[in-house]
Specification:
Helices cover about 45% and strands about 15% of the residues. By secondary structure, the chain is an alpha/beta fold. The protein has a five-stranded parallel β-sheet with strand order 2-1-3-4-5, with helices on both faces. The model has no long low-confidence stretch (mean pLDDT about 90).
Length: about 140
Amino acid sequence: MKTFDDFEMNRSPGILIVDADAQTRAELVTAFKAQGWRVWIATDGQSAIDTLRVFLNRIDIDLVDLQLPHRQGATVLAELAKINPDLVRGAISGDISPYAAAAFRRTNDIPLFTKPLALRALVYTLTEMIVRVERLMVAS
């Protein structure tokens, strides 16, 4: 698996993981930290918003479960984008019908990863997304 050096990154990216399921959060934290990411976690939409506000300049990407308590994940993704329009966004879900997943993908430019998650592929894909954004920012 490629590392940040392979992608010529100058720093470790930061990710905000938003998921109500403790096991999923733990698996994601382990996978991302193993690849050198800085990781913040939130269990619901409000804590995600609060965390992003505090660590605004350190979080590059969010990964939000679409099934959150009190607020739909899609709403949380939109609220986080309002706080930081440059935030790279990703969605995850384990309890989504193929029809709903297809509808989400059709109406959003946000990648949707379904559970059970292929952690290595997920980390790799999000790393590629961050590198692409950084290259675009350098070029502009």
